[in-house]
Amino acid sequence: MNLILMGAPGAGKGTQSAKISEKYNIPAVSTGDMLRSAVKAGTELGLSAKGYMDSGKLVPDDVVVGIIKEYLSTEACKNGFILDGFPRTIPQAEALEAMGVKIDVVLSIEVPDEKIIARMSGRRVCTCGASYHVEYIKPQVDGVCDKCGSKLYIRDDDCAETVANRLKTYHAQTEPLKDFYAERGILVTVEGQEEVSDTTALVLETLDKAQA
Ligand code: ADP
Ligand code: ZN
Question: Where are the beta strands (DSSP E) in the chain?
């Protein structure tokens, strides 16, 4: 299954993507994670991306398209993949089509802006990719990752002002992709639930149906 996961920042794409990856045994790739590792490693790519990310803007299309193109050509993606956070603009979606990549399902997780804002203020993440929330998804030990034991941190772009900008960017540049993929008959939507596990159940059920 070649899957695109959509949803506003903080809609829970990363969490659901890990569950889907486990169930269908296909790799998940997050352009956000890739860009953050580049920032951390201080590569040229990272240096050019950081300013955009910290202010809640999108990194230029050609940069992320290049990253994805490289990734999708690897052996790991042969039996399917999950794209989390790509495409994020119409030109990115067009670039994906131009690569000849066939997408089976585009799943959009819908969460109202007010909820997003409440969630993001409590988000804590780990360098290993795990993600927690001070109220909703607590780690076993405060501030420490369950999976790898590293210290959790707050993402630079999770501050209130940047969150507001990221939401604006999402509605203006990414949401039009829903129409783009609805026209192609492959869009399915799921309402994000209060409980993460309820959302996961809905997501997996929806994907099973979409595949059948
Ligand atoms: P979220 O979905 O929570 O906003 P991500 O981790 O997916 O966070 O992305 C963080 C930031 O990385 C984005 O705000 C943006 O600056 C950049 N980014 C990630 N994916 C893309 C993309 N496909 N196109 C452009 N910028 C991207
Ligand atoms: Zn960890």
Answer: 2-7, 28-30, 81-84, 105-110, 123-125, 131-133, 187-191
